[in-house]
């Protein structure tokens, strides 16, 4: 498994999430649809166990901030900080059971040695598992690229052992007694050179500390449990008798309560698909829904949202199960020649004729993003040269690639003037209200890559948007550079577009946004590159390795222009910025980089528990002096439409996501 890149906490936690599979009653119907929704896998007991723990010592690890990372031969770069390798073995383990660890003390020192994060499957409700902790001998130099200590084969020095007992209790799935540690032996670093003063840790594993504060969730195959479910989760997890839809649709169609997508389904010829409130659309593996010069209208409500979800069994749905929604229009795009979309059945864009129009209301797309080939994944929502879009209360959840990605579109006849931070253009020519793609109250949650990806001339308007990353323990493999917002001005083939309004670089209007990361390796809150423009107002960001990453022409590469986005303030933590050619202003308040915790009322329990255990987030901004900022301003703040004067009153008030959005990781 890949190494973790996270801060070391002072408690031990273990998270057990079993892959819950429903039985054969999950499908229904006599047309074969039930087979697509039936349980997967063979007979027999199986629980998936995700353990997030810590090897804790009675001594003190005094080396601060990873300087002199132990053993002494390790490179000081955090990207190589893999001092230990944990391996679990048992006759009851079906698969998995290994992980690298990261050790990094605070400036004052602490008694933390290393985190470990292990996913394993067991074939019994109770299992005693042997844990072994390995290090690299000092004779192996952990330097170079590729680094030899990225390979488990070099971890040959056994430095400690422990026993881990798992006893699954489906009647009490949150009982901490399901996980116990015992028989800890050994020392973490028995042979560190004496010259590495302060680096030696003495003493054996402290069993009392190691086994305390354990967080546990359990379920088993055949049992699905999601306490305190939202109406959205209940809707997405509901099982009905679906109509199978496949092939090409060329005339108007209204979907029923349940629909199953099989293969790549295309809608064209100006046809309109209408989805009633509360409808559920299941996507089989390999399926996707393409609108090519066609239209989609969803009529979800806060009490009865529309859900596009995986056809896999409840509890066994994962990022990338199906393809998601793709829209292709004839709007603005920086390409001088047509290109191909991503997916198993790539389509040409922009269209030479015909338009696509999309109106989404209270709509959820989850577990989408099928990977066709390395670097070629569909997204939850893919918009190619889509001018006509109106998204209201929309969520992408647990997508394998991007939550929302735009390749051009949204500009209309003239949308070049976004104004300034001090005087944003809301209603004038080319301003926010004239943008032909508008999205407000949007969520991107638990995705594996970027949440809001704006490319190739996208110039729509977005307001009240929230991105939430989930940690690796929740499953799935994040990309090499996951971001909250990734933005490219032009495409890589044209690079320098013409000066006409229809071909100019991306120039969106983005107001009121919240970006919440988990400090994943190489992550960033917002990246502006390749001639990116736009106005970004009232943002808050937290827990990305880099906050603002704005690239000049020289950084983006030959042929690109400078990125000249205007970023107003942006409250964040103190992780670094790289603001080269963007304008960072403080028109609405002093730039604040002192956040020591997430800038919302609550999110950490949802993230750390992967949306299970009944924990639902409170995303309202809680930053002193900036409570009116972010994607969900605090209670008492009036919410306005894009014109800045029309009041909007969502169901749930400023907690506009509450009740209808989904949070469970699978």
UniProtKB/TrEMBL annotation:
Keywords from the UniProt entry: Signal
Residues in the signal sequence: 1-18
Keyword hit for Signal: yes
Organism superkingdom: Bacteria
Protein name: Lipoprotein
